Amino acid sequence: MSIDERIPGLSDKELATLRANAERLAVSGTVQQRTEAERLLPLVDAELLERKARAPAKAPKKAAAKPKAKKAP
Description:
Blueprint: H1 3-6, H2 12-28, H3 31-54
Helix pairs in contact: 2-3
């Protein structure tokens, strides 16, 4: 199984590591490594965007409740 076929099954941490390695190799790798990294980067980015779109929306943070004023006796 090639790496691009495994991308959907990777965890978020593994996907982030793959992306970081591909970015590094795209700049400083051999010709073959740069070619493969440049091929994989769009696939990894697409998977990250798809996961972000599937993630449930975060609820907005509620403002801190103001303390109630004490009534005078």
